[in-house]
């Protein structure tokens, strides 16, 4: 048995470097173009990043307040040159993430390139600085921000050829890490079906539905039969897709970040949606100039292919007062995504809109089976009006969060939605009416069921006013941290034996009303004092999986009870950029770099002590000992039972020590 244990120990010792959790998914290199610029000449520092398969690297050209770590290059003490402009990312991809970041970020896969222009002012020059970036895995959800130093000098030895030491730093950079499940792939199919749904709703509105008999009448007089009818539907699709293509061309991926996060377009979209909504409620109609509509309609009388085209154009124009807000909503949503998204959106919308008209043109007998026009069409329009107004506040919320106005915090947003959907419930139950409604009658079964569904949604929203997480709407609501009623002021409670608020508690906070620490030594001392094990949460502000663990796992009563009663919690933010006092700076033994921020020092502690550089990373320690964790640390795992077992094992091990 002794020999077996010895062999096993040696095996684990040899294998331990392989089992290490430090990751290096992106490697940076740099050159100067031209390599030997003359005095007065402009040159470019070219940064090339080789990215492992299955990973992507966040770019430099999106809002740094969004969440992920934006790539930055910091030049130290320019010698013999000056910067010209800022860092430029070369052709990154773009993605709008609604669920977590609620905005658009840019990224690279396989390889990335950044360029920085400079102007040479002297014969002897030296370019020295630090790159800071973040690479994420589509498969594991881990993110590893990669940082390191670079030097390019005018001497022949360092101009074009990197030294062995520099090469080593590329292969073994310093790391920060956040977990992120967000993969840079657009849900275009999902958006296509949403757009089709909007097109079907448009058919039920009072300025579209009555046009069906006009279509049938037109085609019964035309020669060409089914061929012209198919052509009619194709023209409808082409007209809408044309506008989607225009938007894609003028406001493609490079413009999407501005549309997603800047306050000007978001306030503009807010006003537009309110305008659309009030129009649908019956205050006024959005109409095109009658002269334009009549001119196009007159050309439809020519017959043949030209007549069919203008008939399709007439349909689009005449129905604009109802389809305009819906199509406009689709285009606004599409403008904040991939280049092809406006085209996909208009294709889905127009197909749902065109196919029924085409079928009725081919088979006019179907028209006899349609329900008659009536008050129900205005009711559909009113419902759409309420929905447009509710969606308008989502755009206002985006601007409010990005610019920290605090005008539309979570409880204010919820109060507005409760009021809007409450009013919609009363309308559907016939308790209130609007100007264009017909005589009140008995409620139909579909309307009653729909009204009950909206009422259930209102009931679901109400607990959110008092801190309920409302997980089903996490991508739509302002963050829970903006809510006043959640019972957590953002500052950790004073502990027995302490003299005041905990260190860094003035700007850091724990979720779910939990109390704890943000400094390891302070937490360790308190844990020894109260006789409890230490729960270390290596986390980050931009860590998506950290937020998901808190929202879906920590919030479970079984987990929350154990964290509150059985552990002392310390949250160590590994991406916090708060610069510490100079007397607390030190040079890391891991990478030889100076650690001068709170995040850098927390990450260095994670790497040096636990050989890990990714978050979330949860460690259970006995504060009375400086040894290894009591049980194997865990990372992202959304299984509540697994996390409960992890915490229980730690408590049992602590009691055995």
UniProtKB/TrEMBL annotation:
It comes from the Bacteria. Keywords: Cytochrome c-type biogenesis, Membrane, Signal, Transmembrane, Transmembrane helix. Pfam families: DsbD_N, DsbD_TM, Thioredoxin_7. Residues 39-150 form the Thiol:disulfide interchange protein DsbD N-terminal domain. Residues 189-396 form the Cytochrome C biogenesis protein transmembrane domain. It is a multi-pass membrane protein. The chain crosses the membrane at residues 188-209, 229-251, 263-284, 305-331, 343-363, 383-406, 412-429, 449-470. Residues 1-20 form the signal peptide. The keyword Transmembrane helix applies. Its main location: membrane. It is found in: Membrane. PANTHER family: THIOL:DISULFIDE INTERCHANGE PROTEIN DSBD. This is Disulfide bond formation protein DsbD.
């Amino acid at each position: 048995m002794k020999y077996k244990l010895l062999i096993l120990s040696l095996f684990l010792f040899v294998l331990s470097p392989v089992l290490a959790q430090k990751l290096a998914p992106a490697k940076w290199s740099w050159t100067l173009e031209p390599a030997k610029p003359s005095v007065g000449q402009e040159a470019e520092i070219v940064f090339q990043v080789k990215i492992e398969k299955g990973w992507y690297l966040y770019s430099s050209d999106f809002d740094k307040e969004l969440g992920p770590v934006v790539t930055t290059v910091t030049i130290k003490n320019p010698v013999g040159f000056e910067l010209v402009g800022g860092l430029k990312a070369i052709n990154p991809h773009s993605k709008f993430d609604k669920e977590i970041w609620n905005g658009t970020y840019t990224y690279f896969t396989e390889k990335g390139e950044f360029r920085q222009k400079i102007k040479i002012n002297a014969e002897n020059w030296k370019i020295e600085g630090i790159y800071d970036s973040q690479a994420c895995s589509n498969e594991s959800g881990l993110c590893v921000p990669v940082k390191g130093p670079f030097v390019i000098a005018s001497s022949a030895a360092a101009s074009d050829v990197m030294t062995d030491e520099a090469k080593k730093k590329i292969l073994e950079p310093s790391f920060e890490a956040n977990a992120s499940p967000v993969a840079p792939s657009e849900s275009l199919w999902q958006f296509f079906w949403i757009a089709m749904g909007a097109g079907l709703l448009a058919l039920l509105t009072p300025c579209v539905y009555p046009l069906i008999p006009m279509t049938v009448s037109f085609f019964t007089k035309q020669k060409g039969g089914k061929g012209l009818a198919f052509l009619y539907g194709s023209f409808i699709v082409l007209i809408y897709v044309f506008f989607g293509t225009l938007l894609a061309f003028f406001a493609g991926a490079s413009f999407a970040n501005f549309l997603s996060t800047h306050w000007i377009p978001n306030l503009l979209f807010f006003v537009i949606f309110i305008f659309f909504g009030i129009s649908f409620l019956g205050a006024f109609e959005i109409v095109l100039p009658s002269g334009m509509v009549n001119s196009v309609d007159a050309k439809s009388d020519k017959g043949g292919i030209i007549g069919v085209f203008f008939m399709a154009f007439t349909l689009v124009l005449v129905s604009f007062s109802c389809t305009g807000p819906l199509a406009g909503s689709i285009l606004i949503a599409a403008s904040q995504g991939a280049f092809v998204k406006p085209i996909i959106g208009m294709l889905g919308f127009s197909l749902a809109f065109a196919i029924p008209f085409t079928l009725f043109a081919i088979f006019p007998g179907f028209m006899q089976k349609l329900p008659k026009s009536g008050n129900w069409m205005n009711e559909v329009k009113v419902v759409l009006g309420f929905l447009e107004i509710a969606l308008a506040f989502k755009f206002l919320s985006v601007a409010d969060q990005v610019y920290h106005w605090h005008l539309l915090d979570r409880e204010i947003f919820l109060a507005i939605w409760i009021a809007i959907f409450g009013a919609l419930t009363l309308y559907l139950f016939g308790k209130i009416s609007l100007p264009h409604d017909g005589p009140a009658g008995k409620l139909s079964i579909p309307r009653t069921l729909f009204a009950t569904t909206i009422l259930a949604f209102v009931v679901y929203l109400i607990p959110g006013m008092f801190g309920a997480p409302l997980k089903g709407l996490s991508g739509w609501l302002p963050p829970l941290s903006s809510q006043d009623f959640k019972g957590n002021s953002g500052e950790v409670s004073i502990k027995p034996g302490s003299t005041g608020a905990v260190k860094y508690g003035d700007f850091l906070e724990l979720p779910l009303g939990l109390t704890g620490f943000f400094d390891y030594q302070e937490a360790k001392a308190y844990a020894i004092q109260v006789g409890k094990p230490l729960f270390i949460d290596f986390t980050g502000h931009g860590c998506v999986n950290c937020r998901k663990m808190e929202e879906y796992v920590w919030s479970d009563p079984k987990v929350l009870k154990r964290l509150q009663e059985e552990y002392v919690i310390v949250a160590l933010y590994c991406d916090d950029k708060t610069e510490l006092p100079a007397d607390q700076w030190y040079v890391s033994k891991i990478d030889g770099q100076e650690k001068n921020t709170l995040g850098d020092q927390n990450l260095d502690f994670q790497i040096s002590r636990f050989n890990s550089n990714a978050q979330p990373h949860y460690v259970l320690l006995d504060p009375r000992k400086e040894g290894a964790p009591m049980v194997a640390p865990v990372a992202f795992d959304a299984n509540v039972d697994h996390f409960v077992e992890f915490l229980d094992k730690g408590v049992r091990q602590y009691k055995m020590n």
